[in-house]
Amino acid sequence: MYQLIAQTEQFIVISKDPGVSVHRDQSDKGLVMQLEQELGIKLWLVHRLDRITSGVMLLATSAEACNQLAELFRQRRVEKYYIALSDRKPNKKQGRVIGDMLKGRRGGWRLARTRENPAITEFYSRSAGEGGRLLLCRPSTGQTHQIRVAMKSVGAPIIGDPLYHEHMEPAPDRGYLHAWQLSFELAGRAYHYVAEPDRGQLFRLESVREALAAWDPASMRWHEAGSRDTPAV
Question: Which of 11, 51, 176, 183 is deepest in the core (most CB within 10 A)?
């Protein structure tokens, strides 16, 4: 269900496997419950990942730490980088996707042109072998299905996404969205965590690994992704 990356007095960091629910559902124990049982400590969920999404997750070890970390997310002082794979080129090689998220059909969401409480995502893309496209996404907000909807809106739905990509044959072995890097500062100390994607046949392709190795998010040019007044491109 997960791999433990780091453990401190205030929080733990894990890499979540794809297909794992954060909370208990009808058939599963749930990731948080599993972690608590195996580590023998009480945990507080600071943020969450969709069931299909793998990668870096942060959980607090106390209510106080949870409040402090959650406040960093609310103030947009946490740098988050996700990677995804699509079988189509987005309509722009890079850009921003900004808009309100509205409830759609079958439990999905859709992007509106309004900006009352917009989801804001900036992305880059590059070739990842024949027919493949690697996407690097930097969300400055944390709304449900935000990256999945953003990539569909620019014509590059994520491979294996049961809601926003049409059925494929043969069916992909997972949804190809991964929380890659997470950075923040707490109590005057900087933290940076990376979880390389190691689950899924497509993430293990040499062409994908080479494309990913060419990216260093910290040195790339990122626009004012956090501003709702920034034009979408």
Answer: 176
